[in-house]
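ok new one. same drill as before - structure tokens go in, u give me an amino acid for every spot. 296 of them this time. try not to just spam alanines like last time pls lmao
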């Protein structure tokens, strides 16, 4: 199955709390009352959990990254068919809202993944010759789709992370004043509660965030009110987050290499609340043309 190209519209909120796992569990089981009472009358579907592994690939000279493109292979614990996604750089609007083009397809047949990937890459302006490279990233623990892409295009793995994701569908409640007795709540998007584990140096680091993704542009306007209600009900624990997970993983690796990460971790490897303003300052300095030192 191929989906795209399309524009992904989503809000990203970092969970900035001393016990972020509690926030995840809270919204996994949250009742609908705060949303049903809000303007727009929202309803959440039942929670569903999945474990996913996201592996990002690029050429050794980072041609994809230089073109503003990210290539991801996602494998799920309950689904044998991997999904390949190409994403462009996100355009951050405000308050954690970002939009970016993406295209994805499922690897239904291992014999067609290479020509299909080459076709999609070419459509995105990246033409790669087949190399049949014996890439140094051919680790046996990598999914077969990742190893096949590395062999064919000479890709290397630039990030490999795991996520425990809990999702709940978001619906606009049926208008009680409507005369249509058969009307059903319309689907607006998805609430994703993510516990993400990154390798950083010689340890693993856990970050938690909430994503709210719209099914289409028409739903995005309604979801803006949903995100506002979500934040108001979270007592300041949900903060707009401008870093995508790929960029965050790179930041964690750099901070670990500079010895600046440990002070932002608790004993279990969870990011402390102090990390997020530190990262925001670094991002601000980078956009302003200054890169601050690695101490908070």
């Amino acid at each position: 199955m191929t989906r795209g190209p399309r524009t992904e519209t989503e809000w990203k909120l970092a969970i900035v709390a001393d016990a972020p796992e509690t926030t995840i569990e809270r919204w996994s089981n949250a009742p609908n009352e705060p949303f049903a009472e809000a303007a727009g009358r929202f309803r959440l579907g039942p929670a569903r959990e999945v474990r996913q592994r996201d592996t990002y690939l690029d050429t050794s000279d980072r041609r994809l990254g230089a073109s503003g493109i990210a290539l991801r292979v996602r494998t799920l614990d309950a689904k044998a068919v991997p999904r390949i996604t190409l994403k462009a750089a996100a355009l951050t609007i405000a308050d954690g809202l970002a939009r970016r083009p993406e295209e994805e397809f499922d690897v239904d047949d291992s014999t067609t993944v290479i020509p299909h990937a080459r076709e999609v890459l070419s459509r995105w302006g990246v033409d790669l010759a087949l190399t049949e490279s014996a890439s140094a990233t051919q680790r046996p623990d990598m999914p077969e789709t990742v190893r096949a892409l590395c062999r064919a295009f000479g890709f290397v793995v630039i990030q490999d992370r795991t996520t425990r994701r809990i999702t709940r569908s978001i619906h606009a409640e049926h208008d009680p004043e409507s005369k249509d007795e058969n009307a059903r709540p319309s689907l607006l998007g998805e609430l994703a509660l993510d516990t993400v584990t990154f390798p950083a140096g010689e340890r693993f680091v856990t970050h938690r965030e909430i994503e709210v993704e719209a099914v289409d542009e028409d739903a995005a306007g309604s979801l803006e009110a949903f995100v506002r209600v979500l934040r108001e009900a979270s007592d300041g624990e949900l903060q707009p987050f401008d870093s995508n997970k790929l960029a965050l993983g790179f930041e964690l690796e750099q901070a670990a290499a500079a010895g600046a990460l440990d002070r932002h971790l608790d004993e279990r490897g969870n990011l402390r609340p102090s990390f997020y303003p530190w990262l925001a300052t670094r991002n601000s300095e980078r956009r302003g043309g200054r890169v601050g030192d690695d101490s908070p």
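The chain is about 25% helix and 35% strand. and btw The longest helix spans residues 217-232.
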